[in-house]
Amino acid sequence: MPVKNYNKSELNKEMIINVGPQHPSTHGVLRLVMTLNGEVIKDTKPVIGYLHRGMEKLAESRNYFQYLPMVDRVDYLSSFFCSAAFCYAVESIAELKVPKRAEYIRLITMEFNRIASHLMWVASFLLDLGATTPMFYAFREREDIVKLFEDLTGQRMMYNFYTFGGVKKDLPEGWMTKALDLCKSMPKMFDEYEAIITKNPIFMERTKGVGVLSQEMAVDYAITGANIRASAIDFDLRKTNPYSVYNEIDFKTHLAQNGDSYDRYRVRIAEMRESVKIIEQALKQIPGGTPEKLKVKSVNCGCKNEDCEFCGFDAQLVGKKLNAAVFKPPAGEAVSMIEAPRGVITCYVLSDGTNKPVRVKWRTPSFSSVQVLPELIKGKNYSDLMPIFGSLDVVLPEVDR
Amino acid sequence: MHDLYLEIFNKLGIPTIFAEITWTVIPFIFVAILLILVVIFLVLMERKVLAWLTVRKGPNRVGPFGFFQTIADAIKLLCKEDIMSKDTNKILFTLAPMIVFAPIMVIYGLIPFTEKLVAINLAAGLFLVFALSSITTVGIVLAGWSSNNKYSLLGGMRSAAQAISYEIPLIIAVLSIAVLAGTLNLPDIVAAQAGGASDEIFLNWNIFSWNIIPAFIGFVVFFICSIAEVNRIPFDLPEAESELVSGYNTEYSGMKFALFFLAEYAAMFIMSVLIVTLFLGGYLSPFNDYLSITLFQNVIHNQTILDVFVHIEQGFWLVAKTYFVIFMIIWIRATLPRLRADQLMSFAWKFLLPLSLVNLTIVAVFKYIVTLAQT
Q1: Over the stretch A197-254, which tens digit does the pLDDT of each residue have?
Q2: Degrees (nearest 5) of the Cα angle B54, B340, A118?
Q3: Residues A360-368: what's their mean pLDDT?
Q4: What kind and span of H or E run contains B133?
Q5: Distance between CA B162 and CA B238 in Å, rounded?
Q6: Which residues pair with A346 in a beta bridge?
Q7: How far apart (Å, rounded) are the C-alpha atoms in residues B155 and B51?
Q8: Given strand A40-47, what is the order of strands in its sheet?
Q9: Is B270 exposed, middle or buried (0-12, 13-18, 19+ CB in 10 A)?
C-alpha cells in the first residue's frame, strides 16, 4: 500500500473512527466508518453484511414448508410480521383462502408483536442515551407479552406459528382472558414510561430538533413505518391497503409534525397505545369467541354448514390442510406488503410450479433506514449518533437478511 | 496520642526518628483501609439501590444478600491479566490510574470525619481539597491519550472540556461557604455551622445554622457540579458507555482498571462527604445537642466515656448524611439520560455559573446582615 503523504494541517484535523461492528450501541453488528473533525461528524459510511445469512438464497433449495421456520429469522424482533409477509405471498400464488378466525389470531399476535418490538426499541433507545431504568421497565412488560406468545406457540422468539392458509394452533384456554388483562394494564405502563421519559428535560434536549427527517428525504430514501409517520406523511398499510382484517378494526394512525428523534419516539409510544386498542377490539370481534366456547358450540352444532358461526369456514384455523411434501403452488409470482414495526416489509415470491420457490426477495425497512443515516448525522456532534441512529429503529439481521 | 506513640517506640528501644517518620504514615494506612471499606460497601449499595429502582433483585448469590459480591469482584479484578496493547505509551498508561487515584486518597486525609478524626488539619484545607480533586482530570486525559485508542482519546478530551465547564461554578459555590464560615479550615467550617438560629427552644437546633439555609442555591449548584466531578450519569461523558464504548478506560484491565473503579467510587463518597461537610453540618447532629449527651449525661458521669460516645455519634451523623446524599446521586443515575458535551458546557456556563454568582451575592449580603446584627 502506498504511503500517503499527509500534509500536517490535514493530519491534525480529521480522525477516522470505526464504530462497530462490535460496539455497545450499534444494535447488532453494524459498522460505521466515520470521519470526525473533533467531535463533529464529517462523513459516515455504513458497512453492512456482517449478519448476512443468505435468507433469499436458502429459499431456493428448500420447499415452502421447510423455508417457513427460517422466515422468522429475517427480523427476530418481529417474527410474526416476516412470517405473515411470506404466508400472504404464498397464499396469493396458491389462491388459498384464510379463515377469519385465523386472520384475527394473526392480527392479535402481530399487534402484540408490534408492542413487544416497540418496547424493545424504547429500551435500547433510552439505553443508548444513557438512561438505564426505562430498559428494565420495558423488558418487564415485554416479558408479559413474550409469555403470552410462549403459551400460544411454545416459543419466546422464533414462533413458527403461521402456516399457509391460517395458523397452526388455536388460542389455548384462558389465553384471551390473559391477553385482555394485559391490555388493561398496559396503558398504565406506558404512562409510567411517559412520566420518566417524555417530559424529561435532558431527553427532550437530546432528541428535539435532532436528526430531522424531512418529507422529501423520507420519500427519496423510501423510509417507511413510524419513521415516515413522524415526518407527517400519513402512510400506513394497515389503513391504505388493509391486509388481514384491519378493515374491520377501528383505529387511527398517529402522525407527528417535525420528523425529529423526539417525534419518532412519540409516534411509537402512540402506536403502542393504539395497538392495545386494536387487540382489545380484535379479541371482542374474533369469530367463534373464546376457544372454550367454540369447542363446545361446534360439537353441539355439528352442522358442517359453510356459513355456520361455530363450525363454518370462518371459525376454522386453516383454510385447507396442506401436505408439506407435495405442496406445489401454481407457477406465478406474488408480492405481499406488511406494515411491520420498523416499516413496510415486502416479500416477493416467484414460483415455477415445483415445491420450491424459484426466488424469494425480501425488501426490509431497516435497510432504507440505514441508508439515510449518513445524511441525517452529517455535521452533527458524535454524541448525536445515538439519538439519531437509535430513533430509526434499525435491526441488523433485517438489514442483512 | 503522639506522646503515647513515641513512648512505645522508646520502650522498644527504636530511635525516635523512626517513630516520627512512621507517625505520618499511620493516618494514610487508616485512610486507605477506610477508603477500601467505603468503596466495597458503596458498590454493593449502588447495585442494590439500582436494582431496587429498576425492579430487579440485584446481587444475591455471594454471601448473605450478596454482601460479598464486591469482594468477589475485587478478587476477580486482581486475578485478571494486565493487558497493555503494543502502541500504548507505557509509562503514562501506568501512571494515569495512579494520578487519578492518589489525589482522592489524600483528600480522605483532609476531611473531618469527627471532631478530632482529621488526619491532616490544614488552615487552607478547603482550597487543597479542590486543588487535588482537579488533578484527577489530568489522569483521565493522560489515560485517554496514552491508550492509543480513539474512543479513549475522545473520552479524555471530553473529560478536560467537562472539567473546565463545571469547576468554575463549583469553586464559586464553595466560595460562598468560605464567606459564611470566614475560614478555609474544614473542621472550623463544620464548627461554624453549630449553634442554631437563636437561643430559643426549637430554633437552637443545629439544623437551622447549617450552610444550606443561606446558601441553598449554592448547595444545588455544588450538588450538580459534584456529580459532574465524579463523572456520573447524567454527566458521564468521558465514559459514555453507549457512545465511546467505555471512554478513557476502554483499554484498561486488571488492577489498573480496578484503580479507576476504586477512584470513581472513592471520589463519589468523598464528594458526598464534602457536600455534607460544607452544607449539611458535617458531623454535627441536627438537634441542639448530641443524642448521647442528652440521653446518657445523667447515667454516665465519666467524661471520657461520654466523649467516646459523642465521637461515635458524630461519625454516625456524618455517615448517615453522606449516604443520604449518595442515595440521591444513585437515584439521579437511575432516572436521567446522558447530556451531550456541548449541552453540558452551555448548561455549566450559561446556567450554573450565573446561579453560583447569584448565590455568592445572597450569601455575602446574608453574612453582612448577620455580622451587623451581632455587633
Answers
A1: 888 888 888 888 888 888 888 888 888 888 888 888 888 888 888 888 888 888 888 8
A2: 45
A3: 88
A4: helix B125-146
A5: 8
A6: A337, A363
A7: 27
A8: A14-19, A31-37, A40-47
A9: buried
Distance (Å, whole) CA A290 – CA A175: 9
Question: What residues contact A232, with CB distance under 8 A and at least 6 apart?
Answer: A215, A255, A256, A257, A259
Residue B140 is placed in which grid cell?
Answer: 483521565
Minimal CA separation from B335 to chain A, in Å: 7
Locate the domains of chain A by residue range: 58-393
- The CATH T-level fold of domain A58-393 is Cytochrome-c3 Hydrogenase; chain B (1.10.645)
pLDDT 10s digits, B152-193 = 888 888 888 888 888 888 888 888 888 888 888 888 888 888
Amino acid identity for residue A243 in this structure = Y
Task: Output Rg (C-alpha) for chain B, integer angstroms.
Answer: 22
ipTM value for the complex:
0.79
Element (H, E) at A270: helix A261-285
Q: Measured on CA atoms in the order B273, B278, B283, B285, is the torsion positive or negative?
A: negative
At B107-150, the pLDDT tens digits run 888 888 877 777 777 888 888 888 888 888 888 888 888 888 88
B157 to chain A: which residues are within 8 Å by CB? 39
**pLDDT exceeds 80 at position B205:** no
**Nearest by CB: B150 against A17, A24, A135:** A17
Out of A17, A137, A384, closest to residue B340 by CB: A384
| Residue A1 scores a pLDDT above 60 | no
Residues 6+ apart with CB under 8 A from B156: B140, B141, B142, B143, B144, B145, B238, B247, B248
In angstroms, the CA A369 to CA A150 distance is 31
Chain A CB within 8 Å of residue B228 CB:
no
| B31 part of contact set with chain A, CB < 8 Å | no
